[in-house]
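Illustration: OSBL5 protein.
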Amino acid sequence: DGEVHINELKNGNAEMFWNPTSEVRRQRLKRHIVLFEEQTDFESERLWQHVTSAINKGDQHKATQEKFVLEEEQRNAARERRESGTEWKPLLFQHDASTNEWRYKYEDLRPWDPLNDIAQFEKNGILQTMERHISTRMSNHKTTCINNQITRHKRSAKDCRRRKTSDQPSNHSQNTESSCSTPESVQELSDDDGKYLGFESLCAQCGKDMNHLKEIHSAVLSLQRAQQDIHR
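Result:
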């Protein structure tokens, strides 16, 4: 997001190669870095710290020396592993024999879900996605609806038994008893979407949201298949 110039050493001419507009500068991504003291020895900022320091000071000779020292250490380490028969196992990458390429172990190729995905972040070198967990929230809402229905029907059953034992005419008691068909042990019944509860179905909002989630799930699966085909 800064100016870049091209300097022609032969004739000393200089020209502007890149001068970003204020619009470009505003669009710069916010930079998130791991604190230096929390980085491991092989993380770039710590590993190349002496090279970086020399470059920032404008000391090209020192930067070259530090780079040579660093690379020589890596060559010696690789040589020692070969001689001892030690296999190098990368922490975050694995070799794909079919394409002869190194691939990130934790890559997530699924499409971004704006209804459930909030942000992506890196922790210990692993990219992760923060989610809203809509399905969990919907499940909790569904459970609340079912529990409310169980409570209402328990209350209704209790009222039925109270009316049956009251001092009412015989024929009226029989009518009241026949109108109370809710079993007493409601807790033992299945709560699978209210389908086998013997209650009314879930609230309209539950049904609408569940159907919406099914449509989203179907669309996501279709996008995943397409993305996998493109990736192959």
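Reading the tokens back as a structure: The chain is about 50% helix and 15% strand.
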